[in-house]
């Protein structure tokens, strides 16, 4: 998905934020999207994962980790 396509998707979904890690090779980008009102801080990232801290409006804090791995395990 290109940056232009991602921007269009973000706008259509009405999300408050997006954080993407660029793809490597022929794989797609890895992205997390969140609603307005959440505070999301990137902790770390690589071509295969995103680690972020999320703070909710009621001050509840949690971590979210998104990852991608090659499905071909052979």
Chain-wise SSE layout:
Elements: H1 3-13, E1 17-21, E2 30-34, E3 39-46, E4 49-55, E5 61-67
Question: What class, by secondary structure content?
Answer: mainly beta
Give the overall average pLDDT: 82
Residue stretches low in confidence (pLDDT < 50, at least 5 long) are none
Oligomer: single chain
Describe the overall structure.
This protein has 74 residues and is mainly beta. The chain is 15% helix and 43% strand. The strands form two sheets. Strands 3-4-5 form a three-stranded antiparallel β-sheet, with no helix packed on it. Strands 1-2 form a two-stranded antiparallel sheet. A hairpin with a 2-residue loop joins strand 3 and strand 4. It is flat and about 40 Å long.
State the gist of this model.
With 74 residues, the chain is mainly beta. The protein has one helix at 3-13; strands spanning 17-21, 30-34, 39-46, 49-55, 61-67.
């Amino acid at each position: 998905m290109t940056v232009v396509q991602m921007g269009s998707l973000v706008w259509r979904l009405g999300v408050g934020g997006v954080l993407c890690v660029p793809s490597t090779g022929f794989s797609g980008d890895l992205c997390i999207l969140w609603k307005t009102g959440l505070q999301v801080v990137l902790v770390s990232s690589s071509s295969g994962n995103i680690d972020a801290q999320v703070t909710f409006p009621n001050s509840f804090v949690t971590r979210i980790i998104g990852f991608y791995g090659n499905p071909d395990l052979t």
